[in-house]
Amino acid sequence: MKSGEVAKQRSGGIHGSTPDAVREALRRAISAGEIAPGFQLRQDELAERFGTSRIPVREALRQLEAEGFVTFQPNRGAVVSDLSIDEVIELLEIRIALECHALRLAIPAMGDIDLDDAREILRSYDEEPDAEKWGAFNWRFHKALYAPCNRPRLLAMIEANYGHVGRFTRALVSRATGKDRPQREHYQLLEFCRGGEVEKAVRLLREHIVQTQKTLRSAQRHASRNEAD
Questions:
Q1: Which residues, including other chains, have CB under 8 Å from residue 105's CB and lie 6 or more apart?
Q2: What DSSP state is assigned to residue 26?
Q3: H-assigned helices in the chain
Q4: Cα distances (angstroms) measured from residue 72 to each of 66, 111, 188
Q5: Does the reported pTM lie above 0.70?
Q6: Exposed, middle or buried, 184 (CB in 10 Å: 0-12/13-18/19+)?
Q7: Do residues 195 and 108 lie in contact, with contact meaning Cβ atoms separated by under 8 Å?
Q8: Which of 4, 17, 36, 48 could pair with 52 as two cysteines, CB 3.0-4.6 Å apart?
Q9: How far is CA 39 from the centre of its chain?
Q10: Angstrom distance (rounded) from CA 192 to CA 201
Q11: β-pair partners for 71
């Protein structure tokens, strides 16, 4: 899908779009894998699709550059950033730190509605056969667990970091692991949260993310062997 088509779909062609609206639409499209790494983001095309001038688009791209989603290259302008496997592993380490802290804060504040909502997400995840959509369910579940911590800045950092990680791990990890093991861990995590077992929940969450790191490393070794053959 072309960047302009994504922008049009996300923005709905609303005139006078703000930099924040443009940034959010592009960030979601990049995180969802709708715009691939290396894709050139043309300001004039995006401005037309969003129904705005180039100024909000330029500001949005600069904000995305600060967040690591976009890189400005000589003679090409803004392109969607790419990451090495080592950089993704580091982002997963950051994910452990941020999300374990958020979960520790969130569990004491969780009510039945929070827990029931998280369980419904898992049930929908169970019923989804399309592996391309599993990443979205995974994020919705984790986001639901952290929301009760009521730390907007922390939650924003988690979402931005997850967006980076997700676009590089979503398809790879889904193909390598399926969803049976992650779902078993999700349900166990939810039960620890329901029982107020903070330390057990935090320990399981850490192991859950570490497993993603191991899967990426394993997939990288497998890909290298295939290339050598």
A1: 149, 150, 151
A2: H
A3: 3-11, 19-31, 43-50, 54-67, 85-106, 112-127, 134-146, 152-177, 180-194, 198-228
A4: 11, 45, 43
A5: yes
A6: exposed
A7: no
A8: 17
A9: 18
A10: 5
A11: 79
